[in-house]
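Because discrete structure vocabularies remain unfamiliar, we reproduce here a specimen of the format, pairing a chain with its fold in token form:
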Amino acid sequence: MSTTQSERLRALLEPVVGSRDLDLEEITVTPAGRRRVLRVVVDSDEGVQLDTCAELSREISDSLDEADAMGDGEYVLEVTSPGADRPLTEHRHYRRARGRLVKFRLTADAAAREGAAELTARITAVDGDGLDLEVPGVKGRKPTGRRLEFADIDKARVEIEFNRKDTGTAPPAKAAENAEEA
């Protein structure tokens, strides 16, 4: 997708997505036979429900048709939330991953200082400069706390945990909901 088309689509769709208090994470257009697939990825601090994706899909479709943003060719519109394997690249991604186990690849400078290129740890807090982490203990040892600055992170991705224990670090909105239910 050309930068110009990407910029036009982003300018058109950001207000539609933002009106539902969602973040427009990604827009991609890929060929699929005679058609194209327009994939719009949205997210929020509370996650994205299937019904919200369906409603947003109708709104986006109307906006695209009205602006003729996709031209004459056929296309398929997909509105979705990010997958579990999405890389963490924005401050809000790290904030939303609080309580989750994350695999970090460190920058070359940080790796040289630390003596390791990778680190797997649970995010316990996020601020403007970096992350507070809990590094799991090995062979029965207790977890240890650690600070990691954003400048030292080359790549980061949430690790899938099938037997994740409740760490009590749910995002604020979820924590408030859970407190009300109790």
In short: The helical segments are 3-18, 50-67, 91-96, 108-114, 172-181. Residues 91-170 form a domain with the SH3 type barrels. fold (CATH 2.30.30.100). The first helix runs from residue 3 to 18.
